[in-house]
Amino acid sequence: MPPSSVLLVTAHPDDEAMFFAPSLAHYARHGDLVTILCLSTGDADGLGRIPADRVTVVDHPRLRDGVATAWPEATVADLVAAELQKRRCDTVLTFDARGVSGHANHTAVHRGVRSLLQTRGPALGVTSAWQLVSLGLPRKFLSIADTWLSRTLAPRGALVLAGGSLGTSLAAMRAHASQWVWYRKLFVLLSSYTYVNTLAPLN
Q1: Over its length of 203 residues, how does the chain's per-residue pLDDT go in tens digits?
Q2: How many domains does the chain divide into?
Q3: What CATH number is associated with residue 95?
Q4: Which of 50, 136, 148, 159 would you call most buried, defined as having the most Cβ atoms within 10 angstroms of its Cβ?
Q5: pTM of the model
Q6: Cα distance from N-terminal residue to C-terminal residue, the chain
Q7: How is the beta sheet containing 5-10 ordered, strand by strand?
Q8: What's the number of CA atoms in the CB half-sphere (13 Å) around residue 145?
């Protein structure tokens, strides 16, 4: 099976380290080419094997970081479309409708990507799309123990990508100096997302 070209769409520059590390590790093991599109500004280092020229960080006046900041769906869709026209990725990965934490920026990314793929996905060359399944509070902090539960409770048609590494996630987060505060260190240590991602089809 030939390698995929994957576009990961995130809201913030630390999202890839906090939530998607097992997925990135999976794609790296399989030789897939990963591009990251981050829709708000910040430090984009610490991405492991992903070269800097495969990372796009957007600085858009309508997309400002904020827990309660609503991002326009159409703006998100247009920026993702522009990236897909430039990169020609066949696979797209992003947040689900709950956005892991309910963060307004995360959920806006989901809505924008979903809208784009429903209307222009095939024309842009996208053949598969995945969303990171949000876990309830107890499971979110089961750490590596959630790997078994993820495999047992995965929804029909989902992918369970295990094999995330605490050391890799900590190193990636450390590169985001402004975000490397005690509660994020604790999050990475205890978070199930450090060790396993469940991806459901994004229809």
Answers
A1: 567 899 999 999 889 999 999 999 999 999 999 999 999 974 334 444 577 888 999 999 999 988 888 899 999 999 999 999 999 999 999 999 999 999 999 999 999 999 999 999 999 999 999 999 999 999 999 999 999 999 999 999 999 999 888 888 888 887 777 677 778 888 889 999 999 999 999 97
A2: 1
A3: 3.40.50.10320
A4: 50
A5: 0.91
A6: 23
A7: 55-57, 33-38, 5-10, 91-95, 128-132, 196-201, 159-162
A8: 7
How many CA within 13 A on the CB side of residue 77? 13
Is-contact 99 84, C-beta < 8 A? no
The CA distance from 146 to 135, in Å, is 10
Which tokens in the block code for residue 76? 């998100």
Indicate the length of the chain as a whole number.
203
Residue 47: both structure tokens together = 């991405």
